[in-house]
Amino acid sequence: MAGVLIVVISVGLNFYFGKQLVDFKEIEGKHKVYKVLDGDSIVIELEQAVRLANLDAPEVGFCYGERAKENIEKLILGKYVRIERIGRDSFGRIIGMVYLNGQLINEIVVRNGWAKYASGTSTNEERKELIKKVGREAKEKELGVWSSECYQTENLENPDCSIKGNIGKSDRVKIYHFPGCNEYERTVVELNLGEQWFCTEKEAQKAGYKKSDHCHGKKYK
Fold first, then answer.
1. How would you write the chain as a 3-class SS string?
2. Please, what are the averages of pLDDT over each run of 10 residues along the chain (221 residues)?
3. Residue ranges making up the domain that contains 163
4. What pTM was estimated for this model as a whole?
């Protein structure tokens, strides 16, 4: 009896995982969008998360994050999309190009400034370059995450708090710059990435930021 039970369980597992492999292999078919996690991630059937390739949207809670999510929801939630699979990320999400009625959603998102272009692997360099191109145009037009609401060289909300807190794009190291530091004028605070403005050095340090090397020998007044 135990042997029969093992066989049944084994067959069941093989069927389940076999189905998973088939579904994932044929992910390029049409799939209903059941949920939008944020501006660059959606969920289709089998509770499979899909990450839109070659773009990076702000997290919900950061500047433009909620609107980016809402824009994606209006565009594709509850609709059937075609997914061109490129690979998987470290979270197990499928990375892909997403199409709705022949339109490349990845391009639409970046073109409108709901997300920024991000390099990475792609099955088609032409599409990747297209997304990069529309990303440059969105920046020039100061759309969405590129607007002064999120992309700032001056603190528009509180000009008295002028310390710029930056987060390293690759190493995630947090540093701050204050007026008088080299490169201060050129430094941008990208609120859509979680970067911040501070009123005092102590406030910045409490938030986990350390003084930039460009501020060596200088003190904030």
1. CHHHHHHHHHHHHHHHHHHHHHHHHCCCCEEECCEEEECCEEEEHHHEEEEECCEECCCECECCHHHHHHHHHHHHCCCEEEEEEEEECCCCCEEEEEEECCEEHHHHHHHCCCCEECCCCCCCHHHHHHHHHHHHHHHHCCCHHHCCCCEECCCCCCCCCCEEEEECCCCCCEEEECCCCCCCCCCCEEHHHCCEEECCHHHHHHCCCEECHHHCCCCCC
2. 43 42 54 97 92 96 98 97 92 93 97 95 85 98 98 95 94 95 95 97 96 90 74
3. 152-215
4. 0.83
Answer yes or no: do 50 and 126 share one domain.
yes
Residues 76 and 176 occupy one common structural domain: no
Q: CB within 8 A of 96, min separation 6: which ones?
A: 27, 50, 51, 52, 53, 83, 84, 85, 86
Tell which of 114, 130, 146 closes a domain.
146
Q: Are residues 189 and 139 in the same domain?
A: no
**How many domains are there within the chain?**
2
Residues 134 and 53 placed together within one structural domain of the fold: yes
